[in-house]
């Protein structure tokens, strides 16, 4: 299994971010070819030092890194990636990787 983790930094207006994210962005992302599972953080994202500066963490699950690359090379992937500029004014960091159980 491979994962794409998106760390959305705190936006200027968290209510506007949440409204747009769940009404518009999530439905776009759920159309990604090969997406197996999609979950998001609930509540505050903390760190051992306190506030993290992260508003929301999204984790998208795929069968492989190649599946992630194919998803974002598709029309749906381009639309999803292009949508970030419409709501993520605090910035977002994206990480993708293979996983193994230990």
Short description:
The chain is α+β, with helices and mostly antiparallel strands.
Task: Summarize the structure in words.
- This protein is α+β, with helices and mostly antiparallel strands and 102 residues long.
- It has helices at residues 14-29, 65-73, 75-83; strands at residues 2-9, 37-40, 46-47, 50-51, 54-62, 92-98.
- A hairpin with a 2-residue loop joins strand 3 and strand 4.
- Helix 2 (65-73) packs across helix 3.
- The mean pLDDT is 96.
Record the SSE blueprint:
Blueprint: E1 2-9, H1 14-29, E2 37-40, E3 46-47, E4 50-51, E5 54-62, H2 65-73, H3 75-83, E6 92-98
Helix pairs in contact: 2-3
H/E element order: EHEEEEHHE
Extended strand count:
6
Instruction: Name the structural class.
Output: alpha+beta
Output the number of helix runs.
3
- Distance separating the two termini: 13 Å
Shape: globular
Radius of gyration: 14 Å
> What fraction of the residues are assigned to beta strands by DSSP?
25-35%
Largest sheet: 4 strands, antiparallel
Spans of at least 5 consecutive residues with low confidence: none
The mean pLDDT is: 96
State the helical fraction.
25-40%
Strand order of the largest sheet: 2-5-1-6
């Amino acid at each position: 299994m491979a994962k794409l983790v998106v760390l959305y930094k705190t936006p200027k207006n968290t209510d506007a971010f949440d409204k747009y994210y769940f009404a518009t962005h999530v439905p776009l992302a759920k159309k990604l070819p090969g997406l197996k599972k999609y979950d998001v953080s609930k509540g505050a994202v903390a760190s051992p030092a306190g506030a993290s500066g992260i508003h929301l963490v999204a984790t998208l699950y795929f069968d492989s890194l190649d599946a992630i690359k194919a998803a974002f090379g598709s029309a749906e992937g381009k639309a999803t990636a292009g949508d970030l500029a419409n709501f993520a004014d605090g910035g977002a960091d994206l990480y993708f990787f293979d996983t193994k159980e230990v």
